UniProtKB/TrEMBL annotation:
Intracellular or extracellular location(s): Cytoplasm
Domain Response regulatory, first and last residues per copy: 1-113
Primary localization class, coarse: cytoplasm
DNA-binding region(s) in UniProt: 125-224
GO cellular component terms attached to this protein's record: cytosol; protein-DNA complex
Function per UniProt: Member of the two-component regulatory system KdpD/KdpE involved in the regulation of the kdp operon. Upon phosphorylation by KdpD, functions as a transcription regulator by direct binding to promoter regions of target genes to positively regulate their expression.
PANTHER family xrefs: KDP OPERON TRANSCRIPTIONAL REGULATORY PROTEIN KDPE, REGULATOR OF RPOS
Residues annotated as signal peptide: none
Domain OmpR/PhoB-type: 125-224
Protein name, UniProt field: Transcriptional regulatory protein KdpE
Length: 224
């Protein structure tokens, strides 16, 4: 696990709590060190502050997303909706505001790691084909027009929930619970951001989606 924060007391507190739960912890106090450490060590999850001394944390997210799908949990004092959406849009998987409760943070970290774990093998691999899309639920792979598409763990989890119930309307509340956990009830901005990301990556015309359909005020559904 990589903890990126320029406040030594926060890094120390997280390291103590994480190591007590048998996590190996690396730390970085600025963005450049974070990017180098992430590339060298390939952590299972990154905890990232946005207010770093040398660059904005959003740039770190973009740098990591250029090569990998490692879960990124933002830990920041910035509390506005715009800041949260900006981080999520760049590829973060979750967002916790300071000050924070350690129990909640650890629960969200566990959830982020679970979302990134490979699915257990099934008796028959499930592969969905839909107008240029090939979605392999067992291998967690997506191809569009014959080319691999890289998704973050959270993007994949959202896609998996929608595809596994293809054609059915899934409520916003259910999607939030399935993808982010039962403590998420009102974070509908998460859904808007991630649905936009899936459309951008997987729809031929994201402004006129064919597969990822919004039912205003109700929820979303996947049409194969």
């Amino acid at each position: 696990m990589l903890v990126v924060d320029d406040e030594p007391q926060i890094v120390r507190a997280l390291a103590i709590n994480l190591r007590a739960r048998n996590y190996e912890v690396d730390s970085a106090h600025d963005g450049a060190t974070a990017l180098r450490t992430a590339a060298d060590r390939r952590p299972d999850v990154i905890v990232l502050d946005l207010g770093l001394p040398d660059m904005d944390g959003v740039e770190v997210i973009k740098g990591v997303r250029a090569w990998g799908r490692v879960p990124i949990l933002v830990l920041s004092a910035r509390q506005t909706s715009d800041e949260k959406v900006k981080a999520l849009d760049a590829g973060a998987d979750d967002y916790v505001t300071k000050p924070f409760g350690m129990d909640e943070l650890l629960a969200r970290l566990r959830a982020a790691v679970r979302r990134a774990e490979p699915a257990p093998p099934t008796a028959e691999p499930v592969v969905l084909q839909a107008e240029g899309l090939s979605i392999d639920l067992g291998a967690k792979k997506v191809r569009r027009d014959g080319k691999d598409v890289r998704l973050t763990p959270t993007e994949w989890h959202l896609l998996e929930v929608l595809v596994s119930q293809s054609g059915r309307l899934i409520s916003q509340k259910q999607l939030l619970k399935e993808v982010w956990g039962p403590s998420y009830q009102k974070e509908t901005n998460y859904l808007r951001v991630y649905m936009a990301q899936l459309r951008r990556k997987l729809e031929a015309d994201p402004s006129h989606p064919r597969h990822f359909i919004t039912e205003p005020g109700m929820g979303y559904r996947f049409e194969g």
